Amino acid sequence: MGFRFDLLAPALIGLGLAKLGRENESLGVGIESRSLCDPWRVAVGGRRDLGLRLLGSAGAARGRDAWDGRDSSIIKPVYIPTAALPNRAPLIYTVAAGDTLESIAKDLKIPFREITWSNPGLRLPLKTGQVLRIPPVGVSGFVVVVRKGDTLASLASAHGVDPMAIVDFNRIRGQLTPGAMLVVPVDPALGPNLSNGVIADPMAPARFMCPIPGAQIIQKFGPTSFAVEPSYDGYLHFHTGVDLLAGYGTPIDAAAGGRVTAVGFAGDYGLRVEITDSYGLVEVYAHMSAVETAVGVPVQQGSEIGQVGSTGLSVGSHLHLQLEIGGVPADPLPLIGCSA
Description:
This protein is of the alpha+beta class. It has helices at 9-12, 17-22, 24-27, 48-55, 57-61, 101-108, 112-118, 152-159, 163-170, and strands at 2-7, 29-32, 40-44, 67-68, 74-75, 78-80, 91-94, 131-134, 141-145, 181-185, 208-209, 216-219, 222-223, 238-239, 242-245, 251-253, 258-265, 271-277, 282-291, 298-299, 304-308, 318-325, 328-330, 335-336.
């Protein structure tokens, strides 16, 4: 960090200005004066020890960045940044052969949710040459693309944030341009907000809560010998979610906050609720007996969305929870609060 000191001309007379001027390039010192009566300005870059010598031994001995001149004026340094400001522009990543969501997240040292979050509608597997939007390095948040008709107010409302947070982070000066990319910063300790402004995941940001606290997991994700399960991914029988044991009518809570994107009967799932969470992941709650929400409703993590049943292809009352990432089933474990 650089230091700037305002010193009166008399205090500099004995410092050897000619020599100081010759050394300014190596020491990072610049000197200017408007008249003999005006203050001399000395800018010291990167040399705190030099700054202390200029302040005098008395000031250094007192261990502070101020100097009592002979005219009793107190001079304090003005700190000026010497490093470049961090780049806040979104990144563009072009998918290479062999890239997966997990490998890209690992290479960029970011959670995979920040990729799905910034690329709504993302489908897997990724295709070579596909372009992904990525938040700036070291920034928790997501990227949005300005569409025709978007305003700061409408973007802020859609994501439940203060418009000034978008303005300040992106240094917006003027009207939004369709096609422009903006970053919506998010406090990682709190996670994203729902469109109504409340925190989406107040219990565990970017993690899944057990939809039925304390419920036992009776079947996990993956290949199985259970003949009722359909074929998938080259396996004769594959379970595409996890099953939780619970009695008929037991309340079901949202594992993660988001927006309800489907409700109703759907083949083997029976009566189901589908929630697209704040990170763009989809959670399907199946075999329900009743539903307590509707399409388009913002749902907070831990809120009741319905009750356990045995509708569809089901053997006894239980909840089938399925996670989909980019349209592909994925393992939702761990679920905080479930029992093995």
